[in-house]
Amino acid sequence: MDAASAWAAAKGAAYRPSRGYEAGMSLTLYFHPLSSYCQKVLIALYEAGTPFATVVVNFGDAESAASFRKLWPVGKMPVLRDAALDRTVPESSIIIEYLGQHYPRGTALIPADPDQALRTRLADRFYDLYVHDPMQRIVGDRLRPDGAKDPTGVAAAQAMLRQSYDVIDAEMAGRTWAAGDAFTLADCAAAPPLFFSSKLVPFGERHNLQAYFRRLSRRPSVARAFNEAEPFLKFFPG
Ligand SMILES: N[C@@H](CCC(=O)N[C@@H](CS)C(=O)NCC(=O)O)C(=O)O
User: Fold this and answer.
1) pTM of the full structure
2) Each residue of 50-97: pLDDT tens digit?
3) Which of 32, 77, 141 to mutate to test ligand 1, by most ligand atoms within 8 A of the CB atom?
4) Which of 77, 128, 177, 223 has the largest CB neighbor count within 10 A?
5) Rounded distance between C-alpha atoms, residue 98 and residue 81, angstroms
6) Domains defined for the chain, CATH in brackets
7) Contacts with 147 (C-beta within 8 Å, 6 or more apart), sequence order
């Protein structure tokens, strides 16, 4: 999900993170449970069982927004702060690659085989650019005041989503996960935007896409991120 006004609406909503500091832990995720790009990173962290602390960013709160912008002036979450290596890492895909490089645990979310890694990164780009971004554009438009709406932009975003659904439906005829047989970065990228986009532009009769989304939703890491967002879904203008 996106747009500052959704966070403004969520201002004051209680969020009790289920995670706390563990001994020696250096990772802090700046995030919000309803943010779809943050969910992408949460899924990767839950897949690996990586310990981390959280700071909830609330764009509806001037102080929270200002202190987040000091960390990352672009102002987009998630951002990972690694105190041990003194690194501030923005951008969901880069955060997941960073975790794999510096804190490898469990199955690698970027396959070791270079060609398979390239396929994974392509699928990650596909989900970010052609599912996630159009979904955000439609949500952003719903949050705009009357008189500032962009029906042409929304129609283009809806058309892009339908086109992407067709691509996914065709690809998933022969695959379990977005880039092949293994759960990867690309599946972390796919689950959150498909959750929200399906409420804006339904999947229709695309049965392979439907089945893929069901598999994603049952994955424990994905189910956990979705469950944690549940109390905030009332702020989603779907
Ligand atoms: N390319 C970024 C996109 C992050 C993004 O769009 N985050 C949204 C929340 S889902 C955000 O921070 N929006 C705030 C705003 O646009 O003001 C990534 O992959 O991390």
Assistant:
1) 0.92
2) 999 999 999 999 999 999 999 999 999 999 999 999 999 999 999 999
3) 77
4) 77
5) 11
6) 4-102 (3.40.30.10), 114-230 (1.20.1050.10)
7) none
